[in-house]
Design a protein that fits this description.
Blueprint (H helix, E strand, L loop, with lengths): L1 E2 L5 E5 L2 H4 L7 H8 L12 H14 L4 E5 L2 H4 L8 H16 L3 E7 L5 H5 L8 H16 L5 E6 L1 H10 L10 H29 L5 E13 L4 H24 L5 E12 L6 H6 L20 H10 L7 E6 L6 H20 L4 E7 L18 E4 L4 E4 L1 H12 L1 E2 L3
Parallel strand pairs: 2-3, 2-9, 3-4, 4-5, 5-6, 6-7, 7-8, 8-9
Antiparallel strand pairs: 1-12, 10-11
Helix pairs in contact: 7-9, 8-9, 12-13, 13-14
Bound molecules: 5-hydroxymethyl-3,4-dihydroxypiperidine (IFM).
5-hydroxymethyl-3,4-dihydroxypiperidine (IFM) binds next to loops.
Length: 408
Amino acid sequence: MLEFPKDFLWGAATSAYQVEGNNDNCDWWEWEKRYGLKDTSGSACRSYELFTQDFDIAHRLHHNAHRLSVEWSRIEPQEGVFSEEEISHYQEVVRALRERKIIPVVTLHHFTNPLWFSRRGGWQDAKACFYFVRFVEKIVEALSDQVRYWVTINEPMVYVYQSYVLGLWPPQEKSFSLARGVTTKLLNAHVQAYQAIHRLYEQKQSGPVFVGIAKNMQAFVPCISTAVNRCAAAVRDYLYNYELLLKIKKRKAMDFIGVNYYTRNLVEVRGGGMGHFLLDICQEEHSHLPRNTLGWDIYPEGFFQILMKLKSFNLPVFILENGICTLDDAQRWDFVLSHLQSLHRAISEGVPVLGYLYWSLLDNYEWDKGFAPRFGLVEVDYKTQQRTIRESALKFAEVCHTGKVVSL
Ligand code: IFM
């Protein structure tokens, strides 16, 4: 048996837009309709109302931590106007977790922006950081006596890639220079939010606080091992996985590194020029790895490699997301087990890890992919909102309870 550290944090993650439902005052709500998506988020999992039921399930599954996000567009529905009612709602939500002895891990930005903010230019606006930090101060102040773990921004590079490189997600821009500008804004927003949160806790003498960012990390593997593919894989690994983290570390603005890991990227440069070098992936069927229902390779080895490279940061690592969408629940359990084995291997080789949160507690709204991908430990019937605990959830519950998994 492989044994995890005694005070390890075990649980699952969600985000407001994907589970709450009816977040009708943000850019995604408007965009998903304008874009004509087959599935719009609608009432999603109705967790805005059903959160106590969801947390009862997490409690029964022996989770001792839970990651959720607060929805900026609810809290600040108009520029500079804060809703006391919504702030109380989130106070109630984190209280509900604590009453169940579940440690809340709260994300402040998870892809969505208030409509007023996006209409001003969103993350391109010169005052973007100012607006974000003002919101952060307001909500952190309200939750500081109940929350110790904060995640400033979820997957900044994914946001930039989807919204400013691919031009798929709102605001659907396609420009390397905008992408660079927004990346810098997100970096500054993180640093300023980090400083604001620490300042607040010091002023209130609210005890220790831990602030990090949720970094999506991918293994970059050359497909055919040519010099150009190897070189592109190394460059992408640095730019995508580490550059931002190194900058944050340099500015001393991170108490832990939040890692979201799912898959690998099979690098195959198919033409000349920077675009090909940075973005091309294998288009043939060269990968023989099993995949999730979105076609992502399942590659637990990459998880280990990435964690090992984080060792040099000398900071605790917190796995904030790791999961699979699949219609085969046995495959879900294989995924979790193999990734936990990789994680344990990294821990035993000296990587300090605080905890592991599976993505996701519930099936939920997978952005432009709609409701079809099933990531949940718990199945959601979107017609009745009935929750059904999957077999994999029970197996994971045993791990959360004992802190042990079978060895390879
Ligand atoms: O659903 C997303 C989540 O919002 C961010 N990380 C990846 C998940 C699966 O795609």
